[in-house]
Amino acid sequence: MTRFFTSLILACATSFVFGQNPTTLLQQAEAKLSGSRSAAEVSIRTVRPRWERTMDAKIWNEGMDKTMILITGPAREKGTVFLRNGDEVWHYVPGIKKVVALPAAMVQSWMGTDFTNDALINAGSLVEDYTHTLKGIVSIDGTPCYQIELVPKPEAAVVWGKVITHISVKQTLQLRTEFYDEDDYLVTTLKATDIKNLGGQSLPSKLTIIPADEEGFYTEMTYKKLDFNPIFAPDFFERSNMKQLQ
Amino acid sequence: MLKLAWRNIWRNKGRSIITIAATMFCVIFAVVLRSFQVGVWEHMVDDIVANNFGYLQIHQKGFWGEQSLDLSMDEAALPMDQWAEVDGVRSVVRRLESFSLVSTEHSNRGSLVLGIEPENELPGLKLQDQIVEGQVFAPGSDQVVVSEGLAEFLKVSVGDSLMFLSQGYRGASAYGQFMVSGIAKISNPELNKQLVLMPLQTAQWMYNGMGLLTTAVVDLEPGADHKEVKAQLLPLMSEELELLEWEELFPELIQTIEADMAGGQIFVTILYFIISFVLLGTVIMMVSERQREFGILVSIGMRKTTLAFVTVLENLMLTLGGAIVGMALVKPVQFYFKYNPIDLSGQMKEAIEQFDFEPKLYTTTSFIINLNHGAIVFVIGVLVSLYAVWKIMKLEPVKSMRA
After folding, report:
1. What is the pLDDT at residue A10?
2. Beta strand B195-199 pairing with B108-116
3. Is B376 helix (H, G, I), strand (E, B) or coil?
4. H helix and E strand count, chain A
5. What does the alpha-carbon distance between residue B208 and residue A10 come to, in Å, rounded to a whole number?
């Protein structure tokens, strides 16, 4: 009899946890972070064991496939622009006044940070390319979170072998995401902290990316302003706009 | 007895000449074969090490493994003058090396960028003999020299401009637009496909690393032993620096050489088997021709051991003579092909170039090889003459006289 009750309780608890559809959770979490349109001002701090460096940037985006990034400081990088529109990625270098097409597969570091070009500019969705499994509830820095395991669909062109993400139960925010390679080794961890009111919503204002194999390396991106309702001119995400952007 | 042996040699000139010639050709074949093998590697090491990379390089600790600009050295903090004063050091060459995406309007390619001061460089990068078109850049100018293979790939010629895009020191972006002032043929095929040379200051500016060097190449006096110089330089290295000799810089090269040498050794061993049988043939011929003579000598009272000794002595003189003549005759051949290498063509050339080797066959003029192989052939000569000893010791005078 006791055994029956135990299993009944277990079944109830499990159905509570697993009653949540992981795909819906991810969709909700992603929708919070990237609205259909946004304009942000960020500062990006790259930390190395012997030095660190801060860059300021403005980031605009529309939908999933249009992103424009303008570096506003320091002086050496000021005016540098990255544009992604669909499958094309362009890089404007003010020092030589030239727009250069970036090779399609850019996994190297973006502007010397721990962000890869791929992660920042090509940021794909975790919803479409992966199958999702809810693993349970774990605590991330004291906040209960759903732990969801993502495995790439066979035909998906993604670089990761496995992704584990944590979405807070109350606010549905992606607080911690771990990226693994094909051999199940942790490659990088993305942490979202310092939840603040940004653009009228409670959102993490600081994203930290930590490469797993480099001791003392990390990059922090802090949102200073975030606007979910910017108005873009029709030709805003065009190559011709890169040189005059401010 | 020596006199007796000497006379015997002259008694049958034809047979002696055949033995000498057999030994001589054996030595020549073995030496030519090995000379080419050793020579090709000698030339390659010379080209890579002496002309382009140097026998000794100094970097910030870890630079060679990571090839990261962040592991650069601040030139002001380096005791360059002290290094240059060490015995056997001719000069210390300053370089900044990194990678960059080099693009034109139509194409781009990842390239190796080397900021150098041509007048202080190693022979392979002095850029006087290497320039095939245009001229060397002026120090500090916005000009670059592009290697022949890269220029071909990017379809640029003198006067065109190239865009550089990369990452500089400590995360800064690196960019520049420079004019091609000249095109250089770099002897190392791998470098010739991807090297861009620019003035040291220009590279420092582009990579946001004013006053920084990635590499200090220790240029040696001719004939200086790099291991000795290394031992003297080591106490002058601070904790943060690494001093690497070429064997540590290019371990793959050493492995390739060793593997190739082992292959060559097998080939030479096979050659020696053939040589042994040729020499054995001459001894067998000699013994059977002189059966009757041996029989008479033994029956008129000559001791078998004495006879065997004289025969061995004859053979020793012949093979020694052949070996010496062979060693001497092959010398001009070695010298000729060292300075006039065989230029491979066609499919062979393409196959070798794929492995980034220069498609030319050089020889070495090192006399050690001649001496080694001369000695080996001589020893083989001695061993096969034991056949004659054995035959003589079981000689039955009556039977052999009738034969």
Report:
1. 46
2. parallel
3. helix
4. 3, 13
5. 62
Give me the torsion for CA of B328, B334, B340, B343, rounded to 10°: 130
| Cβ contacts of A196 within 8 Å, gap of 6 or more | A202, A203, A204, A205
Q: Cα–Cα distance between B80 and B84 in angstroms, integer?
A: 6
| Ranges of each domain in chain B | 2-48+253-402, 62-238
Q: How many CB atoms lie within 10 A of CB A127?
A: 15
Closest CA in chain B for residue A93 = B175
Distance (Å, rounded) from C-alpha A210 to C-alpha A236?
Answer: 33
- Per DSSP bridges, beta strands B143-147 and B161-167 are unpaired
Instruction: Dig out the tokens for A84 from the structure.
Output: 């992604």
Q: Touching check for A143 and chain B: CB below 8 Å? A: no
Whether residue B173 and residue A77 make contact (CB cut-off 8 A), yes or no, is yes
Per-residue pLDDT of chain A (246 residues; tens, 9 = 90+): 455 555 544 444 444 555 678 888 888 887 776 667 889 999 999 999 888 999 999 999 887 778 899 999 888 889 999 988 877 888 898 888 888 877 655 556 788 888 877 666 555 667 888 899 998 899 988 899 999 999 988 887 777 889 999 999 988 898 999 999 989 999 999 999 999 988 888 889 999 999 998 889 999 999 999 888 888 888 899 888 888 887
ipTM of the complex, rounded to two decimals = 0.70
> How far is residue B128's CA from residue B136's CA, in Å, rounded to a whole number?
8
Selecting from B70, B171, B177 the residue whose C-beta is nearest the C-beta of A113 gives B171
Helices B291-299, B251-289: axis angle to 10 degrees equals: 60
| A31: number of Cβ within 10 Å | 12
Q: What is the Rg, in whole angstroms, of the alpha carbon atoms belonging to chain A?
A: 20
> What does the radius of gyration of chain B's CA atoms come to, in whole angstroms?
31
Most distant CA pair in chain B, distance: 100
Segment B180-233, tens digit of pLDDT = 999 999 878 888 899 999 999 999 999 998 999 999 999 998 888 899 999 999
Share of chain B above pLDDT 70, in %: 98
Q: Using the 8-state DSSP alphabet, how is residue B48 labeled? A: I
Q: pLDDT tens digits for B346-386?
A: 777 776 766 666 777 777 777 777 888 888 888 888 888 88
| Domains of chain A in sequence order | 21-68+110-229 (2.50.20.10)
Residues contacting residue A46 through CB under 8 Å, at least 6 positions apart: A52, A53, A54, A55, A112, A113, A114, A219, B171
Render pLDDT for B298-309 as a digit per residue (tens, 0 to 9).
Answer: 888 888 888 888
- β-pair partners for A152: A130
pTM (2 d.p.): 0.72
Chain B contact probe: residue of A47, A72, A76, A92 with most B CBs at under 10 A: A76
CA distance B24 to B61: 53
Give, as one character, the DSSP assignment of residue B47. I
Residue whose structure tokens are 């120090």: B139
Task: Tell me whether B165 touches chain A (CB under 8 Å).
Answer: yes
